[in-house]
Amino acid sequence: MNAPLQPDLAARAARQAEVVAALGAVVPPHILLWQPEEVTPYECDGLSAYRRKPLVVVLPETEAQVAAVLKACHKLNVPVVARGAGTGLSGGALPNEDGVLLALARFNRIKRIDPIARTATVECGVRNLAISEAAAPHGLFYAPDPSSQIACTIGGNIAENSGGVHCLKYGLTVHNVLQVRGYTVEGEPLTIGGLACDCPGPDLLAAVIGSEGMLMVVTEVTVKLLPKPVLARCIMASFDDLRKAGDAVAAIIAAGIIPAGLEMMDQPMTVAAEAFVHAGYDLEAKAILLCESDGTPEEVEEEIGRMTEVLSRCGATALKCSESEAERLRFWSGRKNAFPATGRISPDYYCMDGTIPRKRVADMLEAIQGMETKYGLRCVNVFHAGDGNLHPLILFDANQPGELHRAEEFGAEILETSVAMGGTVTGEHGVGFEKINAMCVQFSPEEREQFFALRRAFDPGETLNPGKQIPTHARCAEYGKMHVRGGLLPFPNLPRF
Fold it and tell me: If we measure between CA atoms, which residue out of 127, 139, 128, 131 comes closest to residue 112?
């Protein structure tokens, strides 16, 4: 005889049956998943340290099904979390245990490429790289190129405002999207932005991009396409000192040069990447910079000359410029494969994402070296140095007691240091679940209330991707080492901040 279910499990089973029945009445049963073995693959995104099984997973095939699911969930007050390819690194697509996970991977059609207007209209589940591949016959490309571009989807890029190695020159997702179309929490259609040069009223497009799925569920996106540069060349510069490399980054920008890409890798990262892709990196260098120029041959030649002069003046010990497209791609291959290269040298790693002023790059690297000693963990570093976006990879072994906790504390201190240096707690990975406590460091209670006010304007019940991005007062108090029980603050009349 089966043992009776515990009260909380019984309540969850009853709620699950209610939600499945409601959804089954409006969408085909073959797109619904709720058995444990069916929903387990969806329990986390790229940040695998945090896992939750959703109540139900829905795999819609049409926009009508998306609208129907949202209407049914809104009627039952069921939380909804939208998910794309699941490559996010901040827990932004972490499911709600009492909610529905809306997996939009089947929305993978490229609807229209307009070479005259230089636009592409695609569904939210189209891969980032697939847009450039479809535009290539017209001599065009889509500029934002996160390292996961072979897998990540444009809908996820919208949610996190993704960038990539070329965002210094070409901008982030928010600078390359013209219009998004989708559905409100009530299942009503909503179009934000437009194809004209400008749109009247508030710039809600900039609010939606980077909102991490808390304002609407995006199903279709229209992006800008840019002409492919005639030529691109990359300089690999070696430095025997981290500070010299950091100063070189600031010097290039100060000279009025905006490279197509400006990336930094420290020695441990360089060694790991070289062992993985054999890109020809200088293993003796304390840091290397990858500086790219693109445009016409004349523009590239002039800019390469100017960058070479600045790098030499800043103390580069070796300079190598790509002489062919194959060599350029080989230089970049190590940077693009930094994450899998790190996976070969450590059982687990914890990828952080923050920003600092360019002039503080060397200061941050030195601070991280001190944290390595403090927490007893190694850290390899790769930066979008041109725009001060850092990606420290903290190495740990989850099977060793306490190491995950130390890695989390290590990451929290990196983010706190970023804010102290005049930066922010995230550059392009989003806040999600991972960095929600760090938001208490950067933003005041008044600022956070404004965030909530904007959210409530779109989603009054706060059921779209709840518990992400914006911290509550109680959470910030908890982060400040105050114990909060049951969400209730002790002595609520006392000032906290």
Answer: 131
